[in-house]
Structure formats: C-alpha cells, structure tokens
Amino acid sequence: MKHIQYKTQGTCSQFITVIADDNDVIQEVTFFGGCNGNLQGISRLVKGQKIDDVISRLNGIRCGDKYTSCPDQLCRALEQLKQQ
What we know:
single chain, alpha+beta, three-stranded antiparallel β-sheet, globular
C-alpha cells in the first residue's frame, strides 16, 4: 500500500490523504477542510479507480477565478503518490 498526506495550495481544503494499493488503484481519499459534501462525493467517485485515470479526468479543473481546485490538487497528490 502507498500513502500520502498532501498539503494543498490555493484551495479551501488544507490536506488530502490518499491510500492506493500496489497496482495504483485508489483505496481511500479524505479531504480536510473545504466543501464537505462535494469532497465526500469526489472521494467516493475516485475510490477503486486507477491513479492515471483520475489524473486524466480531473487535472486542470479550476475553482472560480483560482488557478486550481480541490480535484486539481488531488491530481498533484496522486502524482506524488505514484512516485513513491
């Protein structure tokens, strides 16, 4: 199993915790801070998905006039997790 606690930048959420198995399948995602309902939804939708599939779908999403978003920050966390 792989695990990361990622400190987000530019979003309302402050941290993202991700656990993936050795085949790069996401087992759990937890956001700390941010829009609780939306982030629970994202967490459930990505559970069981391959890291690369989630990155390809969520990378570059922006929140309003911000340069990033919680889904985009999840991609940054997943990219770092892949390198472990």
